[in-house]
Write a structure and sequence with these properties.
Elements lengths: L5 H15 L7 H8 L3 H13 L3 E4 L5 E4 L8 H9 L23 H16 L26
Antiparallel strand pairs: 1-2
Length: 149
């Protein structure tokens, strides 16, 4: 099964909480409450998100966290890479592969193509698009992401 880790999923949830309240600075505790997560989990997420330049931590009495850029300017690939490192669907999808059969592999090129398509799809979805809909029809949503063959 291909899936992002639970921490990456939770990081997206935390970032959407911040995206929904762009004018606010939220503490880790407030973020945890709003996201329905444990405060220790949120604290664990905030460090790599800050290191990747996705959130900014502010110190002081009214300190907390906010997005480093607008939600429209943050893509899902940035979130995945902040939490998991470079996207590599297989070992040979990485530039510096440790695969022992890479020199004779007949499927390496295709896995790299699939990796690129997945990366492009994640690049095409912004954090803003991950927010719950605010329309009168909450069941109807769309995300513009095209897969190219």
């Amino acid at each position: 099964m291909l899936r992002v880790t639970k921490l990456t999923d939770y990081a997206t949830v935390v970032l959407t909480v911040l995206a929904a309240r762009p004018e606010q600075v939220l503490s880790a505790t407030e973020l945890a409450e709003a996201a329905g997560l444990e405060a220790t989990t949120v604290a664990k997420l905030l460090k790599p998100l800050a290191q990747a330049g996705l959130v900014v931590g502010l110190r002081g009495v009214n300190g907390g966290y906010r997005l480093a850029r607008s939600a429209d300017a943050i893509t899902l690939i940035e979130v995945v890479q902040a939490m998991e490192g470079p996207l590599a669907i297989t070992e040979c999808s990485q530039d510096h592969s440790n695969c022992g059969i890479a020199h004779q592999c007949g499927v390496r090129t295709q896995w790299r193509l699939i990796n690129d398509v997945l990366a492009d799809a994640l690049r095409s979805v912004s954090l803003a698009q991950m927010l719950p809909p605010v329309s009168d029809n909450p069941g109807k949503r769309s995300i513009n992401a095209a897969l190219v063959s």
